């Protein structure tokens, strides 16, 4: 593949990898936000449990068991959701790491290719300048100038 086409292909691939990284990061941000929301709800439940789990009046005694069951049930549900989010976050982190590694490898290849292309262009320019200088020298020596 010609050098310029290879560079263009690597640049497109690099943009795709960076876009993929952004997508994974956005997914991770959503998961972290949902986890924070669940953690807030768990904290709120714990606070309610601590403040409302005492019998302050004889009329509230029959309802305490139902309240405790409801709080424990909700807490178990929230813990299960948090566990699911943790697993999903671990999968996304794995994909994120893999994509990051691929992007850095691609970036390295792209930089090396760009460096090689610059060297080729510099050598061509140097050759052209040497040819001009040689031609001018030969003309001066012949007395054409």
Report on the structure:
This protein is mainly alpha-helical. The protein is built from two helices and no strands. The longest helix has 82 residues, at 61-142. The protein is rod-shaped. The two termini are 44 Å apart.
Quote the average pLDDT: 90
**Name of the top-level CATH class:** Mainly Alpha
- For the secondary structure, the number of strands is 0
Number of domains: 1
Globally, the shape reads rod-shaped
Q: Give me the CATH fold name.
A: Helix Hairpins
The Cα radius of gyration reads 34 Å
In DSSP terms (H or I, runs of 4 or more residues), the helix count works out at 2
Main β sheet profile: none
Q: How much helix, percentage-wise, in residues?
A: over 70%
Tell me the β content: under 5%
**How far is the first residue's CA from the last residue's CA?**
44 Å
